Amino acid sequence: MGRVEFTVVLRGYDRAQVDAVVEQVHRDPASAAKIVADTTFTVVWGGYDRPQVEDYLHRTAAADTDEPGR
């Protein structure tokens, strides 16, 4: 899967934390829902847009749990 890009805003989620969680979700899609549910991001100056990140992670987790055979 390609790199995911989020908008950087004045106050948003820590970019390194988000990048690490996105990478983890892509490596282990079967655990995506649990990873997303267990994650809390730090809000920092110059971070990723919070609604964008939350929407992406929730859609990704939902897609991975909706796959046949799971």
UniProtKB/TrEMBL annotation:
Matching InterPro entries: DivIVA_domain
NCBIfam families: DivI1A_domain
The name this protein goes by in its record: DivIVA domain-containing protein
Organism per entry: Luedemannella flava
